[in-house]
Amino acid sequence: MPLQRHNPAELSPPTGFSHAVSVAATGSRLVFLAGQTALDGAGKIVGETLPEQFETALTNLLAALADTGGTPDALARVTVYATDVADYRERAAELGRIWRRLAGSEYPAMAVIGAVRLWDEQALVELDGIAVL
By the number of CB atoms within 10 A of the CB, which of 13, 33, 59, 129 ranks highest? Predict the structure, then answer.
């Protein structure tokens, strides 16, 4: 895999993300993954809680990645948009367990951004990403 994760000792220890991810790009291709929410196959938001919606959104993101031939370890960057950052921080341990169960123990470079609302009003979280295959 051409990705290398960088977590310098002088920075705060990362929990649930990598500080930087570099790419050896020779012979690789970038995959840009559109924002995914907790939409089911019928186009309805499923799940009442942030963890429920996070699991579905991550599952959707990984399905889009798989369709390109990628696996979770190819994720170089993921951005999380949350309508309630305080709730996200409060549930970080649970969200981390969901991530590890679905995507493994390697983390991409990540950011969590607070959003007033997402495209679907019922959505609590959205994830987008960049992968290197």
Answer: 129
Per-residue pLDDT of 36-75, as tens digits, reads: 999 998 989 999 999 999 999 999 999 999 988 899 999 9
Cα separation, 127 vs 133, whole angstroms = 19
The token pair at 25 is 């790009």
Q: Helix count (H) and strand count (E) of the chain?
A: 3, 6
- Buried/exposed 27-60: b ≥16 CB within 10 Å, e otherwise: eeeebebebbbbbeeeeebebeebbebbbbbbeb
Its pTM stands at 0.86
The answer to whether 61 touches 33, Cβ cutoff 8 Å, is yes
Write the DSSP string, 26-41: TT--EEEEEEE-SB-T
Helices 50-67 and 92-103: angle between axes, nearest 10 degrees: 30
